[in-house]
Amino acid sequence: MFGKKFCGALACAVALTFAFAGAAVAQYPDRPIKLIVPYPPGATNDLLARVLAEPLAKELGQPVIVDNKGGAATAIGATAAANAAPDGYTLLLGTGTTYTLNPLLKKGLTYDTDRDFRMISIIAEVPVVFIVNPQFPAKTLAQFVDYAKANPGKINYSSPGLGSSLHLAAELFAQRAGIKMMHVPYPGSAGAMRALLSNEVQMFSEVISGALPQISQHTVVPLAITSAKRLAVAPGIPTVAESGYPGFEALGWYGLTVPKATPAAVVSRLEAAINKILASGVLQARFESLAIVIPGPQEAGSAEKYLAKDRALWEPLVRSLNISLD
Predict the structure, then answer these.
(1) Spatial CA neighbour of 235 closest among 212, 205, 251, 219
(2) Which one, of 322, 30, 3, 313, lies nearest residue 172 by Cα?
(3) Cα(51)–Cα(287) distance, integer angstroms
(4) Quick one: pLDDT band at residue 10, thresholds 50, 70, 90?
(5) Alpha carbon 264 to chain centroid distance?
(6) What CA–CA distance (Å, rounded) separates 276 from 252?
(7) Region 49-67 average pLDDT
(8) pTM score
(9) CA distances from 20 to 16, 23, 238 (A)
(10) Between 3.40.30.10, 3.40.50.1000, 3.30.160.40, 3.40.190.10, what CATH number should domain 127-243 receive?
């Protein structure tokens, strides 16, 4: 008798738990939402998050508060998001470094992309541009490759760090073109750009949004960008693909995620809100002049496929270079 009563009470408790959980999901959101940015204030990721937060708050009917948790190549912010309650009240605006490169490069990482996160949407893409010092004899990508093949070991290129997306974009191209270059890492893009301007290195692999001021001032020469299409803000710069390497594409990107166990209904609510914002053009209007590409609305699951494709691109390269940041 006692067992039957206990089981009955347990069943009621479980039913009530699911009922309350269902009610909470149905009312989502009913309080402010935290948007973690794994970079310090002022970074492109931070700016994108703050511009996104305003229309997202309007769509959801609750404040969206940007929370900067920079450090450890985005791992500090990502870990905080991974450990958050999976209730839709903590979002993470991470990057390709967060979701793809860190797991490939850092063995002691305290989060796991597949285990800890559910992709909501790809918010933005940032092409890379290969730029050279004006004194360098090559003015096109084809000329650059010809020079590299004729002068093996004589081209040094800068990047903002070993294992960064910019370092790997240059190495990916070098493998595709069959050339050898010497990588010279600097602690940040500013130092890498100074090295190019002072002719300490011959090439710099930089996000085009960061290189546009120097390109417009003609203090550097752009060879090609790594997006599939030319950019409206810089139509004169050809793509790597059209410069003789069909299919070549290597992009920095920003993706919105939630903790893995977030209820499906909450995920759907967030996906619908983000798609409406992407369709409105408000982000594109703000970021097009910075050469940041805002994609259109996305089908459910497409962000997960994007992540898988990104991983398939970089994992063989990282393994071939035998890079580890531990």
Answers:
(1) 212
(2) 313
(3) 10
(4) low
(5) 24
(6) 23
(7) 98
(8) 0.89
(9) 6, 5, 56
(10) 3.40.190.10
Up-side HSE of residue 85: CA atoms within 13 Å toward CB? 6
C-alpha–C-alpha distance, residues 244 and 235, integer Å: 18
Stretch 266-279: mean pLDDT: 98
Is the Cβ–Cβ distance between 162 and 325 less than 8 Å? yes
- The residue among 124, 22, 35, 23 whose CA lies nearest residue 88 is 35
Q: What CATH number was assigned to the domain covering residues 28-125+252-321? A: 3.40.190.150
Rounded CA-CA distance 59/71 in Å is 30
Amino acid, res. 156: N
Domain boundaries in the chain? Answer: 28-125+252-321, 127-243
* Residues in contact with 250: Cβ distance below 8 Å, sequence separation at least 6, in sequence order: 128, 165, 168, 169, 172, 173, 226, 240, 313
Per-residue pLDDT reduced to its tens digit, 200-239: 999 999 999 999 999 999 999 999 999 999 999 999 999 9
Q: Do domains 28-125+252-321 and 127-243 have the same CATH topology?
A: yes
The answer to whether residues 78 and 98 touch, using CB atoms and an 8 Å cutoff, is yes
The average pLDDT across 174-182 equals 96
Average per-residue pLDDT in the chain? 92
Q: First-to-last CA distance in the chain?
A: 59
326: pLDDT confidence band, cut at 50, 70 and 90?
confident
